[in-house]
Design goal:
Elements lengths: L8 H5 L3 H12 L3 H14 L7 E7 L5 H14 L4 E6 L18 H5 L3 E4 L7 H17 L4 E7 L4 H6 L4 E6 L12 H6 L2 E4 L7 H13 L1 H4 L8 E4 L8 H18 L1 H28 L1 H15 L5 H13 L4
Parallel strand pairs: 1-4, 1-5, 2-3, 2-4, 5-6, 6-7
Helix pairs in contact: 2-6, 13-14
The protein binds guanosine-5'-diphosphate.
Length: about 325
């Protein structure tokens, strides 16, 4: 998609999907002048952001994420919502492609005029992809999407990133297995606002009930910091059963969190954390782009290896070079 012309902010605000797609392409661009354009666009749109519920959805491949998102998304559209689906899935160079965000995975939803589905940027480090997803959330909000679903595969680092950019973090599970068998790390469980056991249908039904009881009994392990008690539900995304209950739970969470101010606090903390992360990323970028600092870094590394400088002195010497303007 060409972004020679700046995306039209007004068209984006009025819900034009092409303008939104173009704006996301702009923020994903690696060109420096695009960065400036993107930031100007984002800051002009900031007053129009924040009016959605941001929901993170994770789970191992095959658990039913896309089936679930399609069922939930279609039911929300029926209720009059507008639904955006974003994926955080830094593609692995080994696998050579993205496992998420493929439009054909959510065929019906992607045909709806009230849905917007955007795969992960096809390249970039996790930090970069996460940064772009955060900005994409803001753009989708400005375009009037009031439910944002951020999908990620629950097998790596990306779940932590997603949990730190959403209001509600939902972990999809398979029936019949403990978390160690599901490849889900304890750390992820602690971030969960809800565990939803999918595929609670047919022969899997008793196993889904067992799994649900198992987690219900282990609920104290899930207790995250906020006032919300994580919930354990089961559903069948394939047969559209239990999806309504999941949505009711999320709306209850939202009402409580809005009333208590917890939602606002969570978003503020996330933004401050994002700021800190950005400063680190930008400083490292500056370091990698400065030839003088790279030369100094090489010397400093050697000096540390030869016990001629302490690591602190060496780090200081590199920063000094960064701070000194070029002649
Ligand atoms: P993802 O990799 O997590 O996105 O999983 P998919 O949504 O692609 O689903 C993987 C497989 O599980 C597909 O064959 C789905 O039809 C199936 N599946 C998804 N949800 C359910 C469910 O609720 N019940 C049953 N029985 N199968 C399901």
């Amino acid at each position: 998609m060409s972004i020679e012309q700046a995306p039209d902010a007004q068209a984006l605000i009025s819900g034009n999907r092409r303008a939104l797609a173009k704006a996301i392409t702009l923020i994903e661009s690696r060109k420096t002048d695009h960065h400036q354009q993107a930031q100007a666009l984002l800051s002009s749109l900031l007053p129009h952001t924040g009016n959605s519920i941001r929901i993170g959805i994770t789970g191992i491949p095959g658990v039913g994420k896309s089936t679930f998102i399609e069922a939930l998304g279609l039911s929300l559209i029926d209720k009059g919502h507008r639904v955006a689906v974003l994926a955080v899935d830094p593609s692995s160079p080994l696998k050579g492609g993205s496992i998420l965000g493929d439009k054909t995975r959510m065929e019906q939803l992607s045909r709806s005029q009230q849905a917007f589905i955007r795969p992960s940027p096809s390249e970039g480090s996790l930090g970069g992809v996460a940064q772009k997803t955060r900005e994409s959330i803001l753009l989708c909000e400005a375009a009037g999407y009031d439910v944002i679903l951020v999908e990620t595969v629950g097998v790596g680092q990306s779940e932590y990133e997603v949990a730190s950019m959403v209001d509600f973090f939902l972990v999809l599970m398979l029936p019949n297995a403990g978390d160690e068998l599901q490849g889900i790390k304890r750390g992820i469980m602690e971030l969960a606002d809800a565990l939803v056991i999918n595929k609670a249908d047919g022969d899997f039904k008793p196993a889904a009930e067992n799994t649900r009881n198992h987690y219900q009994n282990a609920l104290h392990l899930l207790q995250n910091e906020g006032p919300w008690t994580p919930q354990i539900l089961s559903c069948s995304a394939l047969h559209n059963e239990g999806i309504e209950e999941v949505w009711n739970m999320i709306t209850t969470f939202r009402e409580q969190a809005q009333q208590s101010g917890a939602l606002d606090t969570r978003r503020k903390q996330q933004n401050l954390h994002w700021l800190d992360t950005l400063i680190q990323i930008m400083l490292l970028e500056q370091l990698s782009q400065s030839d003088r600092a790279q030369v100094q870094l090489k010397q400093a590394r050697q000096a540390v290896a030869d016990h001629q400088m302490t690591p602190l002195q060496a780090a200081q010497s590199v920063l000094d070079v960064l701070r000194t303007p070029c002649d």
